[in-house]
Amino acid sequence: MNEETKALTETIANRLRTARAATGLSLKQLSDKTQGRLTKSRISNYEQGLRRLRIESAEILAQALGNVTTAHLLCLDEGELRLNDEEQRLLEVYRSADELGRATIMGVADHEYRLIAGRPRRGRPRGRAASRAA
C-alpha cells in the first residue's frame, strides 16, 4: 500500500471512529443497527484501518449512524477526491447492475487491484469468475 493510500485509509478510519463515538454506540450496537450485515469485528477493522471501507459498507454504516453521509465517510466530500466523469460512470453502471453484474464488476476491480497492489485475494472468486473457476 503506497503512502497516499495509507493516509486515505487512516482518514476514513478516523472519520468512522469519530462518527461512532459521537453517537455513543458501541461496536456491537452499531453492528446490530446494520441488522447484522456488518459484524463488530469488521467495523473494528475499518476503524483501525486494517480493512478498506467499500462503498456498500459505507452506505450501510452511514445509514446506521445517522450522523454522517457515505461521501463523508469515504472522504468524497473533499475537492481533491471528487469522482471524475469516468469514475462517476463506473459507479452509475455498478449501481444499475443486477447481482451478477455487480459481482462481475467487483471481480474485475479486485483482479486489477491485486495486480497493482501485488497481493493475492483471500476467498473464492465471485460472479462469473466463480463459474469459470469451478
TrEMBL record:
Record SMART domains: HTH_XRE
Domain HTH cro/C1-type as annotated: residue spans: 16-73
Top-rank taxon: Bacteria
A family per Pfam: HTH_3
GO molecular function, one term: DNA binding
Name of the molecule in the record: Helix-turn-helix transcriptional regulator
Species of the source: Thiohalocapsa marina
Phylogenetic placement of the source organism: Bacteria, Pseudomonadati, Pseudomonadota, Gammaproteobacteria, Chromatiales
